[in-house]
Structure formats: C-alpha cells, structure tokens
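Before relying on records like the one below, remember that each one covers exactly one chain. Contacts with other chains, cofactors or solvent are not represented anywhere in the record.
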Amino acid sequence: MKKFFLIITLFEFIKPVKACDVCGCGIRDASFNMGFAQSIQSNMLITGYQQLNLITQISGYSVNDRIIRFPIHYMHQLSEKWQAQIGTEVQQIQRINAYNENQIWSSVSPSDLYTSINFRLFDNRKNIFTPHHLLWFIGSSLKLPTGHYQIRDNEKRLLPMQLQAGNGAYSIGLQSQLSYRYQSWGLNTMFSHLTNTQNELSYKQGQQTQILVGINRAFNIGKSNHTFIPQIAYAFQHFQIDRQYNSEVPFSGGTIGSLKLQLEWIYKNIYASALYQIPQNVLVPKGAPVVQSSVQFKLGYLIPSLKKDQSLDPNK
C-alpha cells in the first residue's frame, strides 16, 4: 500500500508551460514544455535540441527555413509553493532558395532571456483518502530582449520577425496549468497568454494565446527504476496581427492547431523526453512562414540536495 501511494503521488504531474512557451522568441510554435519535471519539488538543470522546418510560398516558388535550437533551462524551488525558472537558447537558422536561386545561407544567434515564477495553488496528491488528485499551478513570466532580432540574410534583407532569435522587446506572460489524475491516468490542461511591448524598430508582435489539453499514462517498469510517461495532446494557438509604426504587418497573425506526441523517461536523477509535433490546422496570411512537423529532445539532471532525498526514483 505504501509503495502504491508513493507511485501515485509522484506521478500526479501537470503539462506545464515553460517560460519559452510564452516568451515570443523565435518562431511561435510554443512546443517546449517541462512535462513531469515541473511537478517535482527540487532543483533541475535541463538542456535539449529542437528542430523546426518552415516553408514560405513567394510568387510561385518556395523558401525553406530550418531552425535548430539548443536551450538551457534551470528550475529552482524557492519553497514548497513557489518555483522560479530562468533560461535561454542558441538558435541556428538555415535558409534555402531565398531568391529562387539554389543558394544556402545560415546564421547562429543567441535568443532572449526568459524568466518565470509559478505558484502551486492547489495540490491534494498527498491525500490518501481519495483516488482523485488535482495539481494546479498559476504563474507569470518576463522575457528580456537579450537576443538577436535584426538578423539579415546574404542579401542584407531583414528576416521576418517570426524567424528572428528574439523580438527586441520586453514581454509579460500569464499562465495556468491544471492536472487531474486517477490512478495511473492523467488529464492535463494549460492556458497561457503573452503581451509584447514595442521594440526600438517600432515593431510590436501581437498578443499570443495558447490552450493545451493532453492525456497521459505512467508506467513503472517493475523494479528497474525506469518510468515511462507517454502523452498525446492537442494545442491551439492564436496570434494577433503584428504592428509596425501603428500599421498592420500583412504577413503576421493567425491560428495554429497541433497534435503533440510525447514520451518522458525517468531513471533515478535523470530525466529525458522526446516530442513530435504535427500541425493540423494552420491558418496564416498568404506569404507567411508555415511551420511543418517538428521534433524536440530534452535531457535533465535533478541536482541532489543535502537536506533530503530528491531522487526521481518512484520507488524511494
């Protein structure tokens, strides 16, 4: 009974939003999430790899863009209720056939610095008298304009804001994540909203809203200390039209619906995950970059504490 209770307690997790999900940096896919990791009350360092492919149709020919990101992210538990996060990433963009010529151009740039703070509003996972458990986070984020947002291609033409490593502006976000779990099954929901300020180029990205719903199940593999958490989720995103010099930017705004297939793996103090994102319903203006399927991998390490055992091992 004790072992069963510990397993259930550890796997009451939320599909939370990482600060990067609401920072507005780079292409606005909001695909990076922390999954199980954010529900653990301990410090963790996470890095990863993400690849996006985009296609832009221009006057009868296609421009292909490949974006590769290398993020680094740190979570710090301020107390039992409060959690702070900070992170950034390096972005490489490769552009092919920009002027209907078979040319390849690439650039590597730093992105913006993002911070967030989350509050554990409700958590009854330690209640052994009910099989129904809830975990509810609310939080806010602040993005600082430290990234490169004036990247130009080999013809010295400024790239669209959706392809920049940053947006050159401060951004403030609000988010809420709610998870319900019954035994090994979980239902996760997330809502986030981001507001951007205007940068020094008089460019202001539109407000961004995201809603995500996912279903998952936790599997503990015998006594091997290996735990697997597959999840399927659907994310809906809405982007308001950008503005420059108080005029609408024609190649901005729209909505994106995406199917997300994710698998998380936990072994002692090691955390890893793989995410495959498939766009389902993409409604963007003509001439705007259209995101294709993307992949993402994360690897995290739970930093040991001298005060108590913070192992990810669900058997401890």
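The first strand starts at residue 44 and ends at 58.
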